[in-house]
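Just curious. Protein, please.
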Amino acid sequence: QVQLVESGGGLVQPGGSLRLSCAASGFTMDYYVIGWFRQAPGKQREGVSCISGSAGSTNYADSVKGRFTISRDNAEKMVYLQMNSLKPEDTAVYYCARSRVRSLAPNFYDYWGQGTQVTVSS
């Protein structure tokens, strides 16, 4: 069955870095966009970044451009989100998800991971 499993979250000080990983299984990853989303307490889930299956085209939310980098390794069935210059407002549960469409809108995504907590605090 389709599974997406996130890892790599944790507590980091402002200005620090984290790399999130998303391990995919149960489907041919090359054919799908993989997106990263986040949800902070009391807020709606928002798209952070996504990457297409073959060409590796990417989208980023304005709030993370220049700080976050998404990448993928189809052979290893992994997608990564490198997060640099982290800010307290980046604190959220981060999710990866699968889509046929390269978009940051959550409604285009059909399978989701369970999430990993990222906390940016001094």
Q: What stands out?
A: The chain has no helices and eleven strands. The chain has a mean pLDDT of 96.
